[in-house]
Design goal:
The chain has 221 residues and is of the alpha+beta class. Helices cover 47% and strands 14% of the residues. Helix 1 packs across helix 9, helix 2 packs across helix 3 (56-64) and helix 3 crosses helix 5.
Length: 221
């Protein structure tokens, strides 16, 4: 994941660190306020049926959403099995909007080709702690897309574009390592290769000293 974030833009990732920290603190504060008023959320594994039955407004979002058929066709044509993990808050309007739309998209996908798991997160963003830490989830909702057990992208926060466009863009960025000569650096320059299991630093060394220091700090974790 560090390789992917650095390649997409190591400087941009550094700039986003402060923003994500602020967002995380806001979520924590919001969760504490909800807790003070007795508002709780379901945590751990959830089901689509359970969410739609217990939260009618989520079902309304799903029923009202109209994904673009041409984009859905491209998603359905992806040639490998896809695993999607969705971290959500049953207390979160952003989760309702993203997950409700995803449920509508899911109706058009082959269940054998797209495996989906839903994980509920507490209002304070701390539970289930082991899973959140292992997956480096900082913002709710977060949708993690994997192919061949490799994370190829995330959709984080409230939808900023049609959700099917975001899914299509993530899948379109995937390159199958078995079809690529990983030693041919020149051929990789002209294609998007952030999902390949290769290091960034032989080709992507920043020129400015300050950027280099940030780059090295990211490599060290």
């Amino acid at each position: 994941m560090i390789h992917r974030r650095i390649h997409v833009g190591y400087e941009q990732s550094v700039k986003k660190t402060g923003s994500n920290l602020i967002k995380g603190l806001l979520i924590l504060g919001f969760g504490l306020v909800l807790g003070a008023f007795g508002v709780s959320g379901q945590t751990g594994p959830l089901t689509k049926e359970g969410l739609l039955n217990e939260h009618k407004d989520w079902a309304e979002v799903k029923d009202a959403y109209r994904p673009r058929p041409d984009v859905i066709d491209r998603i359905r044509s992806f040639w490998k099995p896809v695993t999607i993990e969705i971290f959500l808050g049953t207390w979160s309007a952003d989760s309702r909007d993203l997950v409700g739309r995803f449920f509508k998209i899911q109706e058009s996908l082959d269940p054998a080709a797209v495996s989906v798991s839903l994980i509920g997160v507490s209002p304070d963003g701390t539970s289930p702690a082991d899973v959140l830490q292992a997956k480096a989830v900082e913002i709710i909702p977060t949708l993690i897309i994997r192919v061949d057990d490799l994370e190829i992208g995330r959709i984080v926060g409230p939808p900023q574009e049609p959700l099917e466009d975001g899914l299509d863009a993530v899948l379109a960025s995937y390159l199958d390592p078995s079809t690529i000569d990983l030693n041919d650096r020149e051929s990789l320059r002209g294609i998007r290769h952030n999902t390949l299991p290769i290091p960034c630093w032989p080709c992507h060394v920043p020129s400015r000293p300050a950027s280099a220091r940030r780059f090295v700090s990211l490599l060290r974790g």
